[in-house]
Amino acid sequence: MSTLALRALSKRPATSLRPLQALISQRGVSGTRLNNKPSLSHQTDTSMSSVLPPPPPPPKMSFQDIFAASQGEHQGVWKNLWDKGTYHYWDRGQASPSLVDFLRDHPDLFQPSKTPLTALVPGCGRGHDVNLFADLGMQAYGLELASSATDIAREFSETIPPPPAPGSRSYITGDFFSNEWLNRLDTKQFDLVYDYTFMVALDPAKGLREQWAERVAGLIKPGGILICLEFPLYKAYDLPGPPWAIRSETYMGLLESVGFERVHHEKPRRYLPAGKDTDMISAWRRK
Ligand SMILES: C[S@@+](CC[C@H](N)C(=O)[O-])C[C@H]1O[C@@H](n2cnc3c(N)ncnc32)[C@H](O)[C@@H]1O
User: Fold this and answer.
1) In sequence order, what are the residues at sequence separation of 6 or more whose Cβ sits closer than 8 angstroms to the Cβ of residue 109?
2) Regarding the domain delimited by 92-286, which CATH topology (the fold level of the hierarchy) does it fall under?
3) Does ligand 1 lie within 6 Å of residue 91's CB atom?
4) Cα 16 to Cα 47: distance, rounded to the nearest angstrom
5) What are the residue ranges spanned by the domains of the chain?
6) Which of 9, 56, 67, 173 sits in a 20 to 30 Å window from 101, CA-based?
7) What phi and psi values does residue 189 have, to the nearest 5 degrees?
8) Are the C-beta atoms of residues 143 and 176 closer than 8 Å to each other?
C-alpha cells in the first residue's frame, strides 16, 4: 500500500446514497366485490367513513424497537431488513473518512509483503470499507449474514471502478461465528480485520462481545492488525441498541485478554456525522 495510493483515494468523490426504498405496509383488502357489486360491508364502510375520522396511522417503530420486538432473534431481523432493502438505517454511502485518514497516517502498520495483504470486514453492509481496502491493493473480503446483503454489496460494487491490481473485492455470505464461510475460502487468517458498527450491533447481554473478541483473534494472523472505529462512545448504557453503548476501556478489556496489544489510539481528523467529535480509532496488533 503506497502513500500515493492513499492520497489519491482520499480525493475520490464520496459515492452518493441510493434513493431510500420506501417501506410499503401490506394491507388486507376489505370490501371484496362479488359479481362486480360492492359488498354490504363495503357500503357500510363508506357510509361510516363520512361520519368517523380515519384511524390514526400505526406508530412508526424505531430501529431499536424492531430489535426489541424480535425477542432476541436478531439475526432474523438483520436478514429481514436486508431482504426488504432497508439498509438506510445504517448505511452512510462511503468509507469512513476517519479510516481513510488513519491508513494514510500509519503506512507503517503493515510490513512490506510480496503477496497482497488480505483484509476482512465482518458485517460489511454495502461494502464501502471493503472497496476502500481493495482500492489500496488488498485482497478484501466483506462478510454479511444475508445473501440479499451480499447481492446488494456486489451490485453496488459494479457501479464503481474496479480496484487496481492486485486489489480484489469479494462479498461472502455467512455468520461471523460459524466456520462454514471460512471453509469456502483459501484464506483462513487475515492480515487486517476492520470493525465499524459490527461488534456494537451484537447484543452484549448474550455475551457476544467476548465471543467477538475470541473470534477476531482467531481470524487474524500473528502480527496482523485489527482496526476499530470506536462508536458509539457517547451513548448512555441504559439506552437500547443496536448499536449498544461502548467505551474505549471496553475494547481494551476485551482485546488485551485475547492477545492483542493496542498500538494506536487517537481522535480522528474527520468523522462520519453519527460519531462526530466523539469517535476514537484504535489499532491492535495480534501478538
Ligand atoms: C449496523 S450494520 C453495519 C454495516 C456496515 N459495517 C456499515 O457500516 O454500513 C451491522 C451489520 O452486521 C451484519 N451482521 C449482524 N450479525 C452478523 C453475523 N453474525 N455475521 C455476519 N454479519 C452480521 C448485519 O447484517 C448488518 O449489516
Assistant:
1) 103, 225, 263, 264, 283
2) Rossmann fold (3.40.50)
3) yes
4) 48
5) 92-286
6) 173
7) -135, 150
8) yes
Question: Within 10 Å of residue 192's Cβ, how many Cβ atoms?
Answer: 22
Measured in Å, residue 123 CA sits from the centre of ligand 1 at: 3
Q: What is the DSSP letter of 282?
A: E
The best mutation among 66, 130, 145 to test binding of ligand 1, ranked by most ligand atoms within 8 Å of the C-beta, falls on 145
Alpha helices in 39-127 (DSSP H): 40-49, 63-69, 74-83, 97-105
The sheet that has 190-195: what strands, in order across it? Answer: 168-173, 139-144, 118-122, 190-195, 220-230, 280-286, 260-266
CB 255 within 8 Å of CB 265? no
Regarding pTM above 0.90, the answer is no
Q: Which residue is listed with cell 500509519? A: 106
**How wide is the angle at C-alpha 124 spanned by C-alphas 120 and 130, nearest 5°?**
55
Q: Give the total residue count for the chain.
A: 287
Q: Is the CB of 65 under 6 A from ligand 1?
A: no
For ligand 1, atom 17, name the residue with the nearest CA. Answer: 145
Does residue 87 line the site of ligand 1, with CB under 6 A? no
Secondary structure string (H, E, C) spanning 143-155: EECCHHHHHHHHH
Distance CA 247, CA 232 (A): 8
Per-residue pLDDT of the chain (287 residues; tens, 9 = 90+): 544 444 444 444 333 323 323 322 332 222 223 233 333 333 334 445 567 888 777 667 889 999 999 988 999 999 999 999 999 999 999 999 999 999 999 999 988 889 999 999 999 999 999 999 999 999 999 999 999 999 999 999 999 999 999 999 999 999 999 999 999 999 999 999 999 999 999 999 999 999 999 999 999 999 999 999 999 999 999 999 999 999 999 999 999 999 999 999 999 999 999 999 999 999 999 99
